[in-house]
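For the sake of transparency, this paper describes our internal protein records without simplification. The record that follows is passed on verbatim for readers who wish to inspect the format:
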Amino acid sequence: MQDHLQHGAATDQDSDSALEGGDYPIEEPVRELTAANVEMVRSAMSNSIIEGVFALIYLSVTTATLLIGLLISLGASSVQVGIAAAMPLLGGIFQPVGAEIIRRFGGWRRMICVTGITIDSLLWLVSATSIALLPAPTALTILLCTMVVQQFATHTTALAWNSWMSDVIPAQIRGRYFGQRTLILNAAGAITAVLAGLFVDHVGDREPWSFVVVILVGVTSRLVSTIFMRRQPEPFPARDRSRSFIRRITDPFRDRLYRRYLRFVFSWEFSVQLAAPFFVVYMIRVLNVPFATVALLAGLTTVSNILGQRVWGKLIDQFGNRAILSVTSFVLAMEPLAWLLAGPSGAAFGAIVFIHVFAGLSNGGFLLSSATMMMSLAPTAGKNSFFAMQALVRGTSAAAGPVLGGLLLDRILNVLVPVPSWMGTTFTVVFVLAFSGRLLAWAFLQRLQEPRSYPRLHVSVLLSEFARSFNVTQGFSLSLQSFSMEPKFDDQTIEEALQEAERSGR
């Protein structure tokens, strides 16, 4: 297929909103976005950034490293830690139900978001109370059970929020806006995680009570975020294609472009998670890298991710989501092979640093372009079902990846299937398989088109944008400006984006 759609080439029959095999009339997408004036868009942008900062403070102390530390302090086994880590991935299976809830609420999403956030936060108060008052084994059981319920609230909220934001942020400026928003949020989250980690490690001596303190701070922050979420405008409700639940959940698979996107998501997430959770294990067990060094390298990845956000957002708006996805996924596809060159010292350790820098830069662009691609491919009418099925496909494939990877490392390779000595460790086999899967997913991506055409992205343009961003005298100043809570869009830019949204119906 051609790399880009030609202007005006898409018709009612072959556009991304035309379903193959559909035998029922589909309501024309309601093009009400122009009713959302410039001030409404600006208000949505500003409030969403502030809301997101408070939300990231909460997420930084209730997920990832601090969550694992809490589980360990309560005496959790490796299996229990693995279950807790898999819950957010499997939570995507709840999103089709969330889409139905949104429909039954008439398509209005703000109150669903606020309610979901409140339930999620209050459940953490239940966990915190059990940790403070009950024996560790009992508190651990309550924590894991409440986490299951929290996934439903969290993923329903995420679905409603994605649908809501795709209505109020015009497609023409989404890349730059969400790039700036992600940059600010990641910076706030990183600072929070460091401060919380220092408190737990040096003040609380990793005792359960110290985790309770940071959880209470996080819950308070999350509840504050709902104040700013209530201020975000919701100009009109989400629209449905069909009255049939079965029709709604199968629509994404009958949409030609979206089906290709889902195929890419499934193959990519599975291939990434097949090896990604074991890179740290490889560093510690095989390369004997100290844990403190591993933590510093993780921080380096976060910094690289933050610094790249401003550049990726601008490039997405200028060259489209597919171009950025293609570049970043190709770089990330090489990551498992690069780990085979890594070592604990010298140039081999330099390879580890190189991997963390480029993985951070590339992953930031990948996540941003993947999210905005999902928004651009989903039709205005029925987008909730499209978003929900993306989360379901992504969650199930991402959860299956580490399970198979762990089985290969512990139960299959060198147990049922011998590994030749020239291949070294069992990690080599898993990394090569992950590379092959990522490369296959990248090939699937090349068949994916976007609803509108964009100019081709040349390597020289990509390099010059990053060089300008990291220029000591100019780029650093521009990067600091990106941390402003006020989005840097003039009225004319927003007006043009709204006009383009009216023409395209997105």
In short: The two ends are 24 Å apart (CA to CA). Confidence is low (pLDDT under 50) at residues 1-36, 472-478. The domain at 34-238 is CATH 1.20.1250.20 (Growth Hormone; Chain: A;).
